[in-house]
Amino acid sequence: xxxxxxxxxxxxxxxxxxxxxxxxxxxxxxxxxxxxxxxxxxxxxxxxxxxxxxxxxxxxxxxxxxxxxxxxxxxxxxxxxxxxxxxxxxxxxxxxxxxxxxxxxxxxxxxxxxxxxxxxxxxxxxxxxxxxxxxxxxxxxxxxxxxxxxxxxxxxxxxxxxxxxxxxxxxxxxxxxxxxxxxxxxxxxxxxxxxxxxxxxxxxxxxxxxxxxxxxxxxxxxxxxxxxxxxxxxxxxxxxxxxxxxxxxxxxxxxxxxxxxxxxxxxxxxxxxxxxxxxxxxxxxxxxxxxxxxxxxxxxxxxxxxxxxxxxxxxxxxxxxxxxxxxxxxxxxxxxxxxxxxxxxxxxxxxxxxxxxxxxxxxxxxxxxxxxxxxxxxxxxxxxxxxxxxxxxxxxxxxxxxxxxxxxxxxxxxxxxxxxxxxxxxxxxxxxxxxxxxxxxxxxxxxxxxxxxxxxxxxxxxxxxxxxxxxxxxxxxxxxxxxxxxxxxxxxxxxxxxx
Length: 499
Known about the structure:
Elements: E1 2-3, E2 6-8, E3 11-13, E4 20-25, E5 30-36, H1 40-59, H2 62-78, H3 80-91, H4 95-112, H5 115-118, E6 122-128, E7 131-139, E8 142-146, H6 154-165, E9 169-173, H7 180-191, E10 199-201, H8 206-214, E11 218-224, H9 227-239, E12 243-247, E13 252-256, H10 262-274, E14 284-289, H11 292-307, H12 328-343, E15 347-350, E16 369-372, H13 379-382, E17 389-392, H14 398-407, E18 410-411, E19 413-417, H15 421-430, E20 435-438, E21 454-455, E22 458-459, H16 467-472, E23 474-482
Parallel strand pairs: 1-5, 8-9, 8-11, 9-10, 11-12, 13-14, 13-19, 14-17, 16-17, 19-20
Antiparallel strand pairs: 2-3, 4-5, 6-7, 7-23, 12-22, 15-16, 18-21
Pfam families: Aldedh (PF00171)
EC number: 1.2.1.27
Keywords: NAD, Oxidoreductase
């Protein structure tokens, strides 16, 4: 069985803690590798390497740092198929979805190539008599990121690309469930010309996370995962004096107005609700049709589309719609939540409980589910399911539909489907959610805008990627300078006398 490593100071390094986690093949339910779980001492060793490497990297001018990222983009494109296959093998995503995971990370790297422009400071001439004032952005030093299983390529790049472009060293603690792609990314960055020790990968669990949180050298921490862990990391990290940004759970609503194109809305819901087996923080998990007639028309469109979904392993070809969920525990939790919806009175319109795939009976496959007549008090509504389950909550008015999205504790993303520009504009202006789609089901901004939710979906002041990333990974230093006047007139040769 393959034994994975950490990546420290430019080399693959075996774990020394004696602790390992199983890396599963989600399609078969078999253990395909073991990944070492770092001790506090191993994290400290990685930090020491980063401390040694960072000053010289920060001294490299931004244009030359950007050239490393340019080369990294070339290498990502060269190895796209290899990265996608490794990602699918450990996560379970289809190959096109896995390639999209890499691509959305690559786009952030492309944005970060603009570091020379993004890091420019400000200058004021003659702020006072003979006084000039200027500000400059300087790197934090050693930074760290703790990333989730559902985007093992994209989210690491969302963090380490801007951090490194700003002149920091970066310590990545990826999910232990699918660690191979992060290790591959670190290799590619060094092939692109990044000095050893600037980007390192330390695999681990809570022991490694706590070591990162309490290490006095690490200046900032980025995190993406569940809200309870986001709250823990944010609270602990801030208490240690670190700069912290944490992105948590989601429950994304899609409002469907009576004037919406129902075929367009149904197609959008199926892709956004069931793509990647629903294991996306931007998945649409709640459909909110306005009016019973709209709801009936929408359900009528959804049912045949959902029943035709192809579920299978990535090896079955690119026409597979989604694959297994990541672990047996995740599958069991989804099944528990589905049963809770039934027990609490929701109508299960499409029942995926009996789904089974011949030859893959031990895999973590979950059939698609569609609920109707879901209410706000049901667990399937309040909880992020993170699986292929779509809940329909019927609203009797636009205001009621808007209120559902606004009242939920999560505020990551939301969407409205309508032909009415006034309704769309009102929705975008009023809803207290961070990312809005208008006739767009998964409103993930492109790399040059920022990504971030509101309410209990985010903890911290700044969003991911876009201009906010360069603010997060730098400190502003302001200099006020005054030079004595008169020197330019030359030396004095006469004896000074008292006036």
